[in-house]
Amino acid sequence: MTRHGKIPSPADLAAGDEKAEAFLKATWSTPAGIVAALSTVDHKIIGRRYIATAFVFLMLGGVLAMAMRLQLAFPEARFISADRYNQIFTVHGSNMMFLFAVPVMEAMAVYLVPLMVGTRNIAFPRLNAFSYWIFLAGGLLLWASLALDTAPDVGWFAYVPLAGPQYGPGKRADIWAQMITFTEVSALAVAVEIVVTVFKLRAPGMSLDRIPIFVWSMLVTAFLVIMAMPAIMLVSTSLILDRLVGTQFFNPAEGGDALLWQHLFWFFGHPEVYIIFLPAVGMVSAMISTFTQRPAFGYLPLVLAMIATGVLAFGLWVHHMFVAGLPRVGSSFFTASSMAIAIPAGTQIFCWLATLWDGRPIFKTPMLFIIGFLITFVIGGLTGVMVASVPFDTQVHDTYFVVAHFHYVLIGGSVFPLIGAIYYWFPKMTGRMMSERLGRWAFGLIFTGFHLTFFPMHILGLQGMPRRVYTYPPELPWTGLNLFVSLSAVILAGGFLVFFIDVLRSFRHGPAAGSNPWNASTLEWATPSPPPPYNFRHIPVVESREPLWTSGDALAVATGLRLDRRELIVSSLTTADPEARESSPANSIWPFLAAIATSVMLIASIFSPWAVIWGAIPVAITLTGWFWPKRTPEDES
Amino acid sequence: MKERIALDLSKLPLHGTGNASLTFWGTSAFMLIEGTGFALAIAVYFYLMSLAPRWPIEAPPPDLAAGTILTLLLLVSVVPNVLVSRWAKQRDLRKVRAGLIAMTILGVLPLIPRAFEFSALHINWDDDAYGSIVWTLLGLHTTHIVTDLVDTVVLAFLMFSKHGDNTRRYGDVEDNALYWNFVVLAWLPLYGCIYWVPRL
Amino acid sequence: MKIAPGCALFLSGCAGTQSVLNADGPSALALQNLIFLFFAVCGIVFVLVMGVMTWALVRERHAPAGQPPIERSMGRIVSGAVVATFVVITFLTAASFYATPSLDRGKADPPTILVRGQQWWWQFTYLDPDPAKTFQTANELHIPVGTDVRLRLEASDVIHSFWVPNLAGKQDLVPGRENGLTLHASKAGVYRGQCAEFCGLQHSHMALLVVAEKPEDYARWLNAQSGPAAVPAESEAAAGKLVFMRKPCAACHTIRGTEAAGTTGPDLTHVGSRSMIGAGLMENTRGSIAAWIADPQTLKPGNNMPLVPVTSEELRQLSAYMSGLK
Ligand code: HEA
Ligand code: HEA
Ligand code: CUA
Ligand SMILES: [Cu+2]
């Protein structure tokens, strides 16, 4: 960066000097060019990339879903072979969970949390860049394997021994396990960034009780990631070891155990579903407040309910194993703990209903998705309570009833709020509004298509249709409903298509948004849309829980940050008193290189254990390059 | 939106230390992740033990010598480690440099008994599930020693370079010391598991 | 006559085949009642929540939002609803506990049938204190009506799950572990079941039939099954037997009373008496047996029976032999 003349002072910026602002912008901006694009550490650019990539994975995963629905539309159909079908449902599930749902939620946090807490970049921005590249590499690995017809075919939870060395030939299960490693590394990295951003980078005055509920939800989610993902890292590594070097973790003949896999997987897998759901809770809370023009009712209960869900999440995993033959008394304990989740979930629902009742509902597209969410999630939650019962579950486990349950909670509980959230925050991210007309169409088609597609699956499950079957005999009474479901899925896909068209169209042609088009209350709306590279000209000073509603016509801000280096404020954990002016790392190509080195190591280690040794050397080199000081102003102290 | 200056931050330090250091919190979060990983690995150990008719399944308990020497070495290394951390806080460049060299040596030394620990187990990783889990526990911990060693070496180079005398570097030294304490601390339950539980 | 139950099943339009809500037997009935109870309670909860939501959305508004007294009374109502939730889930948990013992009926009884799940068919061993009377069959389980029949569940390769929804909830078969399940049919009839845990390529084609018979019919069946295979009467079938013994067939299949003693494939001693072949794949006719032998890999891709090359002459003989093994 070559900049001439005298360095403007913070006072110049405070006085409204435009040169000073341009200078600040140059300090924080990402220059043009490919290398710069690969080097950027701006959380907004990375967040947008992350979101866009995750939605591409949604689209691809949805196409696989449509392929499955085509095959299942008719009994004994032969559109797709058994082997292909098994790859397809495995990749559909793994893709949706690991490459879409979790990353998209983290991506929303990467974009929004720094803005909502009023800082200029996420903590550890280079780690953030690294995490995106690793995520992308994991996604490419999985999809490349599908394109090469060697995709995993063992289901998204890859039970052993089917996925083990004896019954899972080829590299399919290894690809699955290593894809997990990629996505977990990236998710863990983002979780650490979020925790530290929320703990230490909050704007002065944003004490714990003024943190926006969305930010709380992402904080709890980040802790869930931190506590849950090590389990899947451990277990997927054990699987690779069993397959590659002959360890015996899962081999009952040598003292191993098939159920060990299930315990460890679900110890992660259950919290995983709340990792997907809690951010949606945050989104709904944020949007419902804006679209009723009053604070979400019950700040404290909402936050406590999220924390309670997070804690309880670690005590439920056995409810996925009710028919595995564990002792009944132990299993019944998990019935009780699973049902207990209805209390925090109910608390949230009731608080939102109170908000709707007391506020003035504004029926814009995000609000429609909230209503759709309430209807759908309550059904999905209630079927969750049903399957939480051990005896009930012995009849519906591994049937389409469960498929219905989890699509209700995943799509109704998370994707509906997410799409609402895209309509809501799109103006902030791009500076343009999305179309209200197309939004209504998208909602109508998605909502109707969704229920027509997934409601009948409950009945199919009760009629005895197991999941993960590539076909079924015509004699069984499943034919009509399956055809109906498949046809309805076309409506659903049409709804998503309208949504995607709206996004692409609005990105170019949407009307300009202005900084706060919805009259919302949180800090991300205090800065122009899209936000400048430095997010806020001045870091805001927070004086209430709804700063934009209570600050009158002028927002309280802090001055004194240098303009010639990337500076932000470190504040205290509980009261958010400023403690230091910290620098935030500059753009760097090293995270990208480190991600490539890591990817090479991880992929090569599918084929040879020695890759871990030789592959670690480039990783160490790139990491050293990453952390080696470069004599920039950011290194001053 | 219009702005109203409510706070002047120009007096604040240019870098946060201790509680105000971001890397301190980041390191802590990573320790939480890895601590969870260790705890789960230990849980797997006990789970497999609970299923086995005998434990170790088909091996004598591991020989104590190598593991105990390593444990003592690690425990001893805590003293200079804490000192380096203190010197870093005092920004004493000379002592920090000497300390990092000492810590490099103390990072290499445990690798010697570690190399013998694997054979002291009297079992291979692919013999049975017991072998798999003890090798994994040892391997996991070895990775941590090696990672921290590499980190220490890079830091030592940094402290001898022109970038050395900088509060940020001192903070890094403190975080590195913190992490080494974690590596030592995490070893103790592993040591108990690997060497003493089979003797119960 | 032997294949009558299967035909009846498939010609009767199959109303209620393999359905949770068409329960027979005490265990499945208890589960069905529990399911209806849950539907009723959850249905009421759903209607209440949706009612409140609708009202909240459409009601006329008079006071501005956020009035402290209204906030307070909303707080009370929300707390009340949370307490109500607690009461409801306590009730549902209790109901669930109350229904749990129905899963473990007859748990103390000694198992009479050993079920082994294999990729992708079911092996049934009828245990008898007298080893000579212990015999094996496949894919078609016969039980007497009106009594608890205890199954021991084992897997020989990967995890499978034994599920006959009309009679009982499912239970996994886990390699290295032993599970159990009790079947109890109160009416004679044929009940279809299917492997419920994904077990690889042909998980979709791993069905079974449970034939519940009156005790005297069952005794007759038992008696017939435990005996050796019928000696082929006509010459075509006798030639088929020779082909069977000469070809690799005998290396995988057992036919009691002959030298065929393979164990990788289903016991074929009385294969002709079963109503389906290929684990529910096709009805058992001479033609379908021939089709199966001619090309098992097209009919059930990936299954563990290879295509054994035979001439059309041999095929005719083999199928005659097989379908004669009543
Ligand atoms: C976003 C994801 C998400 C969410 C939020 C949930 C929420 C819940 N889930 Fe679900 N679940 C999944 C995703 C999710 N689930 C997935 C992906 C699987 C399948 C994995 C696989 O096998 O592939 C699964 C499977 C699954 C099973 C295993 C079933 C089986 O395999 O046989 C069970 C069993 O207990 C269960 C229970 C629950 C419960 C009790 C809740 C609760 O959190 C629900 C709580 C909510 C409510 C209850 C509604 C709101 C409350 C009120 C309106 C108050 C009044 C209510 C009462 C009085 C009851 N889930
Ligand atoms: C967030 C997660 C998520 C999401 C969004 C979805 C979305 C969908 N899912 Fe999926 N599903 C899972 C998570 C998810 N699923 C999981 C975890 C499993 C378990 C896997 C396993 O057993 O291992 C599963 C399994 C599963 C099955 C069971 C397979 C089996 O057991 O054999 C089925 C069957 O119908 C199904 C259907 C669908 C459909 C129709 C959609 C639709 O909502 C998709 C709609 C979206 C699109 C269609 C894309 C966008 C549209 C366009 C780009 C327009 C143009 C495209 C076309 C017209 C083709 N899913
Ligand atoms: Cu056996 Cu599915
Ligand atoms: Cu769960």
From TrEMBL, chain A:
Regions crossing the membrane: 50-74, 94-117, 129-148, 175-201, 213-241, 273-292, 299-320, 332-355, 367-388, 400-426, 438-460, 480-501, 613-629
Gene Ontology annotations for the cellular component aspect, listed alphabetically: plasma membrane
Entry keyword annotation includes GTP-binding: no
EC number: 7.1.1.9
Single GO BP term: respiratory electron transport chain
This protein's record includes keyword Transmembrane helix: yes
Topology in the lipid bilayer: Multi-pass membrane protein
Start and end residues of each Cytochrome oxidase subunit I profile domain: 22-543
Annotated GO MF terms: cytochrome-c oxidase activity; heme binding; metal ion binding
Pathway(s) the chain acts in: Energy metabolism; oxidative phosphorylation
SUPFAM superfamilies on file: Cytochrome c oxidase subunit I-like (SSF81442)
Keywords: Cell membrane, Copper, Electron transport, Heme, Iron, Membrane, Metal-binding, Respiratory chain, Translocase, Transmembrane, Transmembrane helix, Transport
PROSITE patterns registered for this protein in UniProt: COX1, COX1_CUB
Domain of life of the organism encoding this protein: Bacteria
Subcellular location(s) of the protein: Cell membrane
Chief location category: membrane
Catalysed transformations (reactions): 4 Fe(II)-[cytochrome c] + O2 + 8 H(+)(in) = 4 Fe(III)-[cytochrome c] + 2 H2O + 4 H(+)(out)
Pfam family, one: COX1
Family the entry assigns: Belongs to the heme-copper respiratory oxidase family.
UniProt function note: Cytochrome c oxidase is the component of the respiratory chain that catalyzes the reduction of oxygen to water. Subunits 1-3 form the functional core of the enzyme complex. CO I is the catalytic subunit of the enzyme. Electrons originating in cytochrome c are transferred via the copper A center of subunit 2 and heme A of subunit 1 to the bimetallic center formed by heme A3 and copper B.
Protein name stated in the entry: Cytochrome c oxidase subunit 1
Species assigned in the record: Rhizobium leguminosarum
From TrEMBL, chain B:
Cellular location(s): Cell membrane
Domain Heme-copper oxidase subunit III family profile positions: 1-199
One GO term of the biological process aspect: aerobic electron transport chain
UniProt topology in membrane: Multi-pass membrane protein
InterPro entries: Cyt_c/ubiquinol_Oxase_su3 (IPR024791), Cyt_c_oxidase-like_su3 (IPR000298), Cyt_c_oxidase_su3-like_sf (IPR035973), Cyt_c_oxidase_su3_a-hlx (IPR013833)
PANTHER family: CYTOCHROME BO(3) UBIQUINOL OXIDASE SUBUNIT 3, CYTOCHROME C OXIDASE SUBUNIT III
Protein name: Heme/copper-type cytochrome/quinol oxidase subunit 3
Source organism of the structure: Rhizobium leguminosarum
UniProtKB/TrEMBL annotation, chain C:
Assigned keywords, A-Z: Copper, Electron transport, Heme, Iron, Membrane, Metal-binding, Respiratory chain, Translocase, Transmembrane, Transmembrane helix, Transport
Function summary: Subunits I and II form the functional core of the enzyme complex. Electrons originating in cytochrome c are transferred via heme a and Cu(A) to the binuclear center formed by heme a3 and Cu(B).
Enzyme class name: translocase
Annotated TM spans: 35-58, 78-99
UniProt-listed Enzyme Commission number(s): 7.1.1.9
Gene Ontology CC: membrane
NCBIfam families the UniProt entry points to: CoxB (TIGR02866)
Membrane topology (UniProt): Multi-pass membrane protein
Domain Cytochrome oxidase subunit II copper A binding span(s) in chain numbering: 108-224
Cytochrome c domain location: 235-326
Family: Belongs to the cytochrome c oxidase subunit 2 family.
InterPro entries linked to this entry: CcO_II, CcO_II-like_C, Copper_CuA, Cupredoxin, CuRO_CcO_Caa3_II, Cyt_c-like_dom, Cyt_c-like_dom_sf, Cyt_c_oxidase_su2
Location in or out of the cell: Membrane
GO biological process, one term: ATP synthesis coupled electron transport
Catalytic activity: 4 Fe(II)-[cytochrome c] + O2 + 8 H(+)(in) = 4 Fe(III)-[cytochrome c] + 2 H2O + 4 H(+)(out)
GO molecular function: copper ion binding; cytochrome-c oxidase activity; heme binding; oxidoreductase activity
Name the record gives this protein: cytochrome-c oxidase
